[in-house]
Amino acid sequence: MSEFIDRAVVEQVARLARIHLSEQQLDASSKQLGEILNYVGQLERVTLPDDVEPFFGAIESVNAIRADEVNSSVDRDSILSNAPDSDGEFYSVPPVF
Amino acid sequence: MNSVNESAKEARARVGFDQVTVVIGMEVHVQLATQSKLFCSCSTQFGAPPNTQTCEVCTGMPGSLPVINNQALQLAIKTGLALNCEIARSTKWDRKNYFYPDLPKGYQISQFDKPICGKGYLDIADANGAFEPRRVRLERAHLEEDAGKSIHDESSRGGNSKIDLNRTGTPLLEIVTKPDMRSAAEARAFLTELKLILVYIGVSDCNMQQGSLRCDGNINLHIEFGGQTIATPIVEIKNLNSFRAAERSLTYEARRQFDLWQQCGLTIDDSPKQTRGWNDAQQVTTMQREKEESADYRYFPDPDLIAVSTSEEEIAAIEEQIDRLPAIWREHLSEVYNLKPYDADVIVSQGRGLVDYFREVADQCGDSRIASNWIGQEVLRYLNESGLEIDRYPVAPRQMAELLKRVVSNQLEQTRAKEVLNEMVASQLSVAAAIEKLGIKAVDHDELKSICQQLIDEHPEVAKQIQDGNIKAVGRLVGKARKLNPNANPGLVKDMILKFLGI
Question: What ipTM, to 2 d.p.?
C-alpha cells in the first residue's frame, strides 16, 4: 500500500474542515495521513470470527446516564466573554448569506 | 429544433396528471418533553432571554463532557413503542460534522447506524373517506440534539447575524418515514395522526409555533410513459411550519414537477436531490442555496459518549405506561358508544381530555348520540372561541349530563336547553339554578291549551291556511307562542294546534 494518500482527498478533507493548507502542507499531510492510515490499517489483516459485534469505543461500560434535572446555567456575561463578538445578549457573527 | 426531442416533448404533453403517482416521505423533528437538555442540565424552557440557558457542555467548551438524559431515552422509547417500532437493545451516538454559526461544537450529536427506534408503522385513514386507509411505514426514529437559533439581518444591508444558543442541545426525536404517502392530503393526515399520538402519550407538546414539531417533505413523481415508469428528481421541502403549509407545498410541488417534466423531461437520473423552501406569502416552493458539499457529514462514533443498552424489563415497563392510542379510542367510541366514524373522530382528535369528558357525559345521561352532538357542537364551539382546553371548560361532565337528561326526557326542548347551557357557562350555575334563574317552568296542560286557542282565535287567516293544507304555516303560530310564554314547548304547541284544527 502506498505511503501517501491522494492529494485530492487531502484537499477535500481540508475544505470540509475549513482549513487552508499550503502546497508544502498538502504534501506533508498527504504523507502523514497516509502513514497513520497504514498503521491503523494493520487491523484489517486480522482475521475475525463471524460473530464478532463491531466495537465503537474504548470504554467497555455502558449506560452512563443522568436524571432529567435542571441545574443553573452559566451566567450570560461569562459565557459571552468567550465570543469573538457579541452585543451583550447575542453572539454576533458575520452575515451567513 | 431537434425533431426527435420535439416529438418526445409532444408525447409528454399528452400525458395527463391522472397518470402520475405522487410519492411522498416525511421527516419530522419532535422536541421531547424533558426539563433539561439532552446532554447537560440546562433548562429547555421556551422563551427565556437569549443565551441564558447555556453552559460549557452545550456551547462546546474544550474539556466539557456530555452525559445522556435518561428521560429523553425513556420518551424516545415510548414514542417508538407507540409507533410500532423495533426498539434497539443497544444504541450509540455519532457526530454529524458541519459548520454553521448556530452549531457551536462544529458537529451535532446524533445517531447514525444504531438509532434508538428502528422500523415501525403508522396507519392513517380519513373519517370522510377522502382516501383509502393506508399504512405508512417508518424507516427509523433517532435521538439528536437541536442547534441554536440564528437571527439574520433582514434589512439586506449585510449586518451581522445574531445567535441565541438557548435551544442548542434540546432533545429531538427525528422520525423518518418510507416514501409511502400518495398525496398531500395523506401527508397531512400522517402529520395530524402522528401529532395526536405524541400528545396522547405525553412525549411532546408538539407546539409548532415554538418549534416543538418541525417537518420536511420529500416528494417526486412516478409517471407512466412510453410503457415504463419514469421518476422525476426528488425534492426535499424544508422547514414546513404548519400542517397546512405541508399540504399546500406538496400539492404545489407535485404540479410543478409535472409541468417541468412535460417541458424538459428531466428524470431522477439527470439531477441530484434538490432542496426547496416554501414561500407562504406567494404559495410557491423556491430553490434554496445549497451548503457546499453539505451531504458529506463525515459521521463517526462520538468518543465522549458510551453506548446505551436497554433491557427487556425496561422496555416492558415503558410499554405499560402507554394508555390507549387514538385509533383504539375511535374504535371504542364507535363500537361501545355507537358513534359514526366521523363523530368519533371529532372527539378523539381533540385529545384525551375530551374523550374522557364525552364518556362521562354519555355514561351519565344515557344517550351517547345526544352527548356527542352537544359536545361536538356546543362544547367545541366554546373551546375554539375561548382557546381553552377541555379541563378548563366551566361545565363539569356531571352537570352536562344532568342537562342532557332533561333534553332526552323532553323536560327541556333544545333551544331552551342551549340557553340553560349558556347560563351555566356564563355564571357557573348548576342546571337547576340556571333553569330557575332563566325562569323556565314547565307549562301545564291547561295553560298550553289556552295559549293555543288564543293563537287560533287571533290569527284566523293562518288557521285557515293550515286547514287548507298548508301545514307548514303552523310554524308562524309556534313562533308567536314563544312570545306569549317562552317556556311553551314548541313541539307540544305544534301538535296541539294541529289537533284543535282537526288535522
Answer: 0.89
